[in-house]
Each structure stands twice: as C-alpha cells, then as structure tokens.
Fold this sequence. Notes:
The chain is of the alpha+beta class. It has one domain. Helix content is about 25%, strand content about 20%. It has helices at about 20-25, 35-40, 60, 70-80, and strands at about 5-10, 25-30, 40-45, 50-55. The radius of gyration is 12 Å and the shape is globular. Zinc ion binds near residues 27, 45, 47 and 49. Zinc ion binds near residues 27, 49 and 69.
Amino acid sequence: xxxxxxxxxxxxxxxxxxxxxxxxxxxxxxxxxxxxxxxxxxxxxxxxxxxxxxxxxxxxxxxxxxxxxxxxxxxxxxxxxxxxxx
Length: 86
Ligand SMILES: [Zn+2]
C-alpha cells in the first residue's frame, strides 16, 4: 500500500523558529493503515517532521497545494507521480 496520509505540523513546534513549518504546515505521512484509522495520531512525516494526521484530508489533493511541505512533495512525487505534475 503506497498511499500517503496527510499530517498537519503540530503548533507546539512552530515556536522553535522553524518558519517554513508555518507556511507549509501540511506533510505527507506514509500510510501503513487507512488514513481514517490514523486520524489524530502523531506520526513522522516523510521529511522527518512530527505531524498529527488529519484523516479527512487527502495528500493527492493537499500535496498539490501551496501549503504543502516542499520536501514531502518531492519525496512523494518521486515515489508516486502525481497526475498534476508539471
Ligand atoms: Zn514535510
């Protein structure tokens, strides 16, 4: 199963001076289980960030947006080409 759940950077991490976390709060999390089961869990994003999974979001959609983590986008695009890839 090579799908990705969507994780939101935890607010408590924002006060450490990592500004990029604020402008790109969405990260991809390797989903070993359906994202609905991971909802609310704290996981490690593919870029190494600590995030909380939002099971109602889809990485296929969020990952193409401007608020998605650039590193996660690069990693997931390499693993699984998106149809919206430029
Ligand atoms: Zn990321």
